[in-house]
Every structure is written in structure tokens, then in C-alpha cells.
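Usage example:
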Amino acid sequence: MVGGFPLTIDHRPPTIDRFKTMIVSKQKNLDEILAAMAGDGKVFLIGCAKCATVCKSGGEEEVWQMQEALISAGKEVTGSVVIDEACHMLRAGRDLRAKKEMVEEADALLVLACGAGVQSVSAGTPKKTVAGLDTLFLGNIRRFGQFEQKCSLCGECILTETGCICPVTVCPKGLLNGPCGGMDNGLCETDRENECAWFQIYERLQAQGTTDKLKRTVPQKDFSKMLKPGKLKIER
Amino acid sequence: MTTCLQQKLASGHFVLTAEVCPPKGSDCTEFLEKSRHLSAFVDAINVTDNQGATMRISPLAAAALLAREGMEPIFQITCRDRNRLALQSDLLGAAALGIGNVLALTGDHISFGDHKASKPVFDLDSVQLLQTIKGLGEGLDLAGRAVSGAPAFFAGAAAAPEAEPFPLTFYKLEKKVAAGAQFFQTQAVFDPERLRLFSEAVRPLNVKVIAGILLLKSAGMARFVTSNIPGLKVPAPLVEELESAADPMAAGVTIAARLAAACKPYCDGLHIMAMGREDLIPQIVEAVRSEK
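Running the assembly step on the lines above writes:
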């Protein structure tokens, strides 16, 4: 029991074996980060042990490298912590309290976590908080260091109808009723390196013998299912 | 309201349409001059909608200017820049301004244009846009609420006869017709045989086919459109023909006129895309017109 919470701590290091999809992020360039902390001499560094670790944008290693970079730039680093899931609001608060003195000594907190992580950190402290990453998308892991967006979190899943290839995401126009006029030999007009989403769907449905699904006109999408900010409370 | 274009196609007239790009700016003098000149040679003028995702004057405004002068516009409306409220409200506006022909398109992706950081909309796709047009004609908006006037548009859609795999595109063509498309204006055709196969395939759909003819102005331009314009591929022999010509523009006109004549048996009309040289359209259509 820690802080009144029963904790089931998984001590395995976060590897790609454990995470098949994640929030993909990349570090902002150092000049931009330094400009955001122009008047701040002392910095406390925060990373995330989950997605940002696998994306190599804010794990132990990147926090260490950032510390070196900040010191070279004349900053004092008061301390650092890599939160196990920075998006977990209670855990983020708890981990910051554990380093209370170092946090309080700092002029600014630099967070190397996704936008959700940055906000759960900043919610727990009145300190100036700086976002060190750009958060990109919910990504599948192709292989180490290679991520691809497959799902747009649209709140109205149609994968069953499309051979489990998402046109909302894989088609740059999110077209629901087939390819646009820019498809060329099964390739996408926006990037000739990419296969057209509808070509992929067509091939998959052909293999499954269910191309009849392509005859159905898909009605206008209900975008109210993805109105922001999303909220979910599981009823028991 | 039945449009002139609709009447001509219904009565079996071989129609000619041409594309005029509205200006980047609010001065429509040249656009109107070009259109007036063209009107003598074509049955309707397509007014493009921020073509290639390059920002220009609203096609609704430009088409209305044509309609005001008694010309016959085809208002091209894409899903790229408008959500379903804006699409419907522009359609109602078009009807109120006397525009009866609409070409419902998805729209080239933002990444091709001059505002690459813009947010692509694509709230609806072209099939759903056609359904929307049909619904308005029946007096209902997409929320199922009544609209006054119930604008009866002559709605068309795009088709790409040379696209591969064709069976995949055909599913969508069927949906477009089911959703209310009464005519297709096709992507530029370079192989009349492909158009013949296309027309055969869509014959059961009972839809008019207006085949696209693109004026190739030079070998360089042919190469440029092949690599930069979605869905356009100029065959190598045509590029060579332009390359070896003493006067590439004249060769381009000859090629376009030749394609127009070869395509004529397989369609209900031709759509000429002259890419700024609309003054040459009379020469391109001369042969097919005189056969009328």
C-alpha cells in the first residue's frame, strides 16, 4: 500500500512487447524548449515511463540527455523523475510530491510526456510548466522506432464493415464510400509511397469474398461522437 | 427548374462544356470575358472550386456572375473546404442565384495547394454530398428539416475512366448514380478505347457521360500534370509528339482535337479543360461541332 492505494507495480521495463499501440510523440527542438524557459535558471525535469519512453521522446535516456543539454545551456537542473504513466493524474501528483523540494526549488518544470501527461503534471502544481514534446497520434508500432496511425479515435467504429482497415484514418480525406479520383493504380494521391486505403480494403474484402460490402452506401458520419473534450465514466 | 444543359442532354444533343478557373482575387473582368467568348462555343461552363486546393474567389459567386449574364454555369462544389452546414447553405444560395447545374466533388487534398497548413474538412464525401443535393430537391436538409423552395439541381459527379483498378472505382460510380448523379464529367481521357470500355460499363446506370479532354500545351506541361495532378497520366507517345513538334501549342491543339473526335462516339458530350488557354477551345471543338 502506498498513499492509501493498493498498487500492483509491474517491474518489467517498458518494451515494445508490452505496448502495441501508444500515443506517439516527438521532442520539440532544443531552441524552442530553451526559448520557452528563457528566464528560468533552475529546471526540474519530468519524463514518462510509458509512451514517451517507447517513442524515445521522454524516457530515462531522453531525460538524461535533456539534463545534459540544459546544463550545457547554462541551466541548473534541480532534479528529475520519470513518472510511470504521466497521464495518470494521481500518480503524477504523488511522484511530484515525492520530489517536493527539488520541484519547489525549480523556476520551471519541463515535461517530456504527451499533452495528456503535461496537463496531469501541471494540474498538480502551481509551478510554470513547459511542454517539451509535440504529441502526434495514437500509433501502432511497426517495429522499433517506427509508428503508424491506424485509428483516429472517432467514437463510431466501422472496421467490421471495411475489412478492418480504417478509411477514416488511413484515407487522408477520411472517405467512407470508396476511393477519390486521385487513386492511381491503388496508390494514394497525397503520397505515392502509400497504398490507397480503399484499395487495401478492396483487396482485403476480395480475399474474404465479401466485396458486396463495397456496394453499401455509408451514410453521413456522426462527428458528435468525437466532440471534445471526451469524457467517460464507467458505470458499475 | 430544368437547366438548358439538362434539356440538351435529355434530348440527345451532343453537348460541349469547358472549364474556366475563377480568379485569385475579386476582379472577375477577365474571367467574364473568357466565359462570354466561350459561351458561343460550349453549352455550359464549369466553374472550379479552389481547384488544386489553391485559394480563389468562391465558385458560387463566380457561377452567379455567369448566371446573371445569361450564361450556363456548372457550379463545382467540393467537400474539402465546407462542412455539411456550409455545403447545404451554398447549395441553397446557388439555387436562389439561378444556378441549376452542380458538380459534386470530393476535392483535391489540401497538400496540393497554396494553403498547406489549412484544416481539411471532408465532413461529407462526394456520395453523401449527392445524397444531400437530392434531399434538398425533395425539400429536406440533412437534419431532416424542411427547406423552402426545394431546389431541383441537375447534379453531376466525377469519374475516372482510366483509373485502376476500375472495378473498385465502379462501386463508387454506382453509389454516385444511386445518390442522384445524372451525369458524369470524366477526368481527362487519353485513350479513347478506355472511354469505350467505361461507357459500356456505366451504360446500365443510365447516366450521361461527358468525357474530359485536356489541352496539353507542351511536353513539360504534360510531364508536370502527370506527376502533380491527381489522377492524370499523359501517355509517353503523346509527350513525345509534343516534344518533337516545332510548335508544341499547335501540336497540343491537334492532339486534343484528335482525342475529341475519337472519343465522341463513346459519350454524350465533351468537357474541355484548356488550363488557361480557353481561347483555343473553338479550334479543339471545331471538328466535333461541325459533325453535329
